[in-house]
Amino acid sequence: MSQEAELIAAMTPLIADLAENGRGAVALAGSRGKGRADAQSDYDFRVYAHDYRAPDIRHTEQWNRFEAARLDWEAKGIRMDGVWMRSYAGVHRDLAAWVDGTPVPKEFEWTIWGYQLPTDLFNQQIIYDPEGQLADWRAQLATYPERLRTALLRHYREILAYWAGDYHFASKVVRRDLVFLVGLTGKLANAILQVVFALNRVYYPGDGWNLPMAAELPLVPKDFISRMEAIVSPGQDPGAWSRQRQNIIAMVMDLEALIVAVDGQNYQTGPTEGRTISTKQISHHAAEEKLP
Predict the structure, then answer these.
(1) Which residue positions in the chain have pLDDT lower than 70?
(2) End-to-end Cα separation, the chain, in angstroms
């Protein structure tokens, strides 16, 4: 038996026992759930139940047994990121909203772009599923929800179109406002990847393995990975940020052309606090920029 199999066999009954009836559903998420674990990967366990042993589970003997086992494995060099206790009802509610095209924002310190529920449920490794609910959720997500795809494409295309045509971006480049530019780089890289994954009807990976997983997608702009690497790591020469902005604008234009080719949709948005902009306008703004 491998060390991972031994760990799962030892921890599963302890994790399941945190549920009020001792039969919580157990899954392994994160990079191991995605099948992309490496030497840096820890173990991200999930447990799902109708209720738990106590409002503060840390004061129960079940938690003490789990924590003692976790510390024993930690002493052997195994990193375990505790266990995330979820309620069946809460996941049911949030998943229904996601599938209907209304992502439920949940911000946690350990996630940069917000928690991606469909990704977690679809990719997690199901270990113990006494009610069959985890398998049901995965089956529900086997076909990418079209309403979710439409909502994600609309939202992130609006973000990309806004910044590709916004004069503030050009001004910040000229000023070399580095803190702003670094923050915006992350925001736009995330938006580009969200569009690409939604276009391909593949669940967004979350905070890890984004580019390696994007490299496996069939529908991407030409030289997508190398261009994304140039965007997120523009260099330190005097023209780096100007070049990065041009690369972002070119990427947005290529994404729009790809979406039109695949879906037959021209870029359109509804009322927003910002403004709408077409690929023609993006091109016009790009041509107007005076690079330092």
Answers:
(1) 37, 265-292
(2) 62
In contact, 74 and 80? CB cutoff 8 Å: yes
Using alpha carbons only, give the angle 263, 161, 210 rounded to the nearest 5 degrees. Answer: 70
Burial letters 42-65, b for 16+ CB under 10 A, else e: ebbbbbbbeebbeeeeeeeebbee
pLDDT of residue 284: 42
Task: Provide DSSP, 58-72.
Answer: GGSHHHHHHHHHHHH
pTM higher than the cut 0.90: no
Q: What is the pLDDT of residue 286?
A: 43
Q: How many CB atoms lie within 10 A of CB 202?
A: 18
pLDDT of 272 reads 37
State the alpha helices, DSSP H only, in the chain: 3-16, 30-33, 61-75, 88-99, 117-123, 133-140, 146-164, 167-175, 178-199, 210-214, 224-232, 240-263, 279-288
Q: Please, what is the angle between helix 224-232 and helix 178-199, to 10°?
A: 160
